[in-house]
Design a protein that fits this description.
The chain is α/β, with parallel strands linked by helices and 417 residues long. The protein has 2 domains: 4-140 and 299-351, 3-Layer(aba) Sandwich (D-Maltodextrin-Binding Protein, domain 2); 142-297 and 353-416, D-Maltodextrin-Binding Protein, domain 2, CATH 3.40.190. It is built from 19 helices and 15 strands. The strands form 4 sheets. It has a 5-stranded mixed sheet. Helix 1 (2-13) packs across helix 15 and helix 10 (189-214) runs antiparallel to helix 12. The chain is globular. 53% of the residues are buried. Bound molecules: beta-D-glucopyranose (BGC). Beta-D-glucopyranose (BGC) is lined by residues 33, 39, 65-67, 141, 269, 298, 300, 376.
């Protein structure tokens, strides 16, 4: 179905004529970290659609939620002079690789297809380097979500999803008293940072989030508000089970599915996990934004590394076009738990969590409460993000005071800037 509308103009653009030998549609080796149930299903849709154009897909999955292992593998491949054709990358990471001259642009595809007209400007800006598209976005993920098991909540006498951190703590206390793990969590630095940034948004609001986690303002980082955020994080440490250390995020989601745990705080890739397990939103699981009136943005996109050979170059262009096609954006995001990056894809077939995500995104843009995720590499360079992750994880796994935490964090961030 992608042939006629999207792919054929590209084949022509790549200087190929119809009737060129088999596999003229290109080859891509795709490096990504989508290995959980929901993720694998979603990336399977991309593979299927690419192969339907006649292209050859070489899969290079690197397990590890949040993509830290994938980024290490990428660096090794580039250093060895053998980059993959297409790589899942985000935010400032896109800019960093582009600055190093490692990326091919897909500007011709973007212009031919009018990407500027269908992407939110904030997202389009992230996809470009020096005014040229060097990445194609597949989705908009929201990081500030709470997922819950309704039966577990009912058993514990929790009547509604929390809308403030006080309500969250009260609900968690009830779950604990009922013998249910209040918070399913995996103790990996990126997961700790995910919970942390959602707490920062809820405690401080979007403006504070931006000052502290994006602009890295020293006053914000050492403020009482940041101390209060760490206090809430300390409270949450008491709500996780003793085996949380090192647990993968999707296993934490499974604890909520089974009713072993009441809540998980995680981006909406967790919804992809519930859906892949056949769970029904609103019935088998609940979603609600974490307290705070903002929207923590995370978007997955693919970049195209400098490779040689017509077959590979064509593959890059075909993949870029495919990723941005409306049909694909719909199919992919129905599986991934996110919403389309394109603004013109109807959401009629999406569930209420996705519709809520879209409505809140629009509201957040209007009220200037849209913030880029620090934990998911949308906000700050990897070196700075690394300092946040180290400190937050150290705090979570020790009895460090909140006051010490803000001082250490501010100093570490200053060093890394
Ligand atoms: C990515 C998601 C992915 C999640 C867990 C996030 O950083 O944006 O696509 O599902 O990590 O692996």
């Amino acid at each position: 179905m992608f042939h006629s509308k999207y792919v054929l103009p590209l084949v022509a653009m790549a200087g190929l004529t119809l009737g060129t030998p088999a596999r003229a549609e290109g080859t891509v080796e795709v490096l990504h970290w989508w290995t959980s149930g929901g993720e694998a299903k979603a990336v399977g849709e991309l593979k299927k659609s690419f192969e339907a154009t006649g292209g050859t897909w070489i899969d290079s999955p690197i397990a590890g939620g949040g993509g830290d292992a994938a980024m290490t593998a990428l660096r090794a491949r580039v250093v060895a002079g053998n980059p993959p054709t297409a790589v899942q990358l985000k935010g400032p990471g896109i800019q960093e690789w582009a600055q190093q001259g490692a990326l091919n642009d897909v500007q011709a595809v973007a212009e031919a297809e009018g990407w500027d007209a269908v992407l939110p400007p904030a997202l389009a800006g992230i996809m470009k380097y020096e005014g040229q598209y060097v990445a194609a976005p597949v989705n908009i993920h929201r990081v500030d979500w709470i997922w819950a098991n309704p039966e577990a909540l009912a058993k514990a006498g929790v009547e509604a999803m929390p809308t403030t951190w006080e309500e969250f703590n009260a609900a968690a206390d009830k779950l604990q008293a009922a013998g249910i793990v209040p918070l399913a969590h995996g103790g990996q630095p990126w997961q700790d940072a995910t919970v942390f940034e959602d707490v920062v948004l809820g405690v401080g609001g979007a403006e504070f989030f931006r000052k502290a986690l994006v602009e890295l303002d020293q006053d914000a980082l050492t403020s009482d508000t940041m101390v209060a955020a760490f206090d809430q994080l300390r409270k949450m440490r008491g709500y996780v089970d003793p085996n949380f250390s090192g647990r993968d995020w999707n296993l934490a989601t499974a604890m909520v599915m089974r009713g072993e745990a009441g809540f998980q705080i995680m981006g909406d890739w967790a919804k992809g996990e519930f859906l892949a397990a056949g769970k029904v939103p609103g019935k088998d699981f609940l979603c609600a934004p974490t307290p705070g009136n903002g929207f923590v943005l995370n978007s997955d996109s693919f970049t195209f590394f400098k490779v040689e050979g017509d077959e590979n170059l064509t593959g890059q262009k075909v993949l870029a076009s495919l990723i941005m096609s409306p049909d694909f954006q719909k199919t992919f995001n129905l599986a991934k738990g996110s919403i389309p990056a394109r603004t013109d894809v109807p959401l009629d077939d999406f569930d209420d969590c996705a519709k809520r995500s879209h409505a809140d995104l629009v509201k957040a843009i209007e009220s200037d409460a849209l913030v880029p995720s620090m934990a998911h590499e949308m906000a700050v360079p990897r070196s700075v993000r690394g300092e946040f992750l180290d400190l937050v994880t150290e705090f979570f796994n020790s009895d460090m005071s909140s006051q010490d935490a803000v001082e250490k964090l501010a100093a570490a961030v200053k060093r890394a800037m």
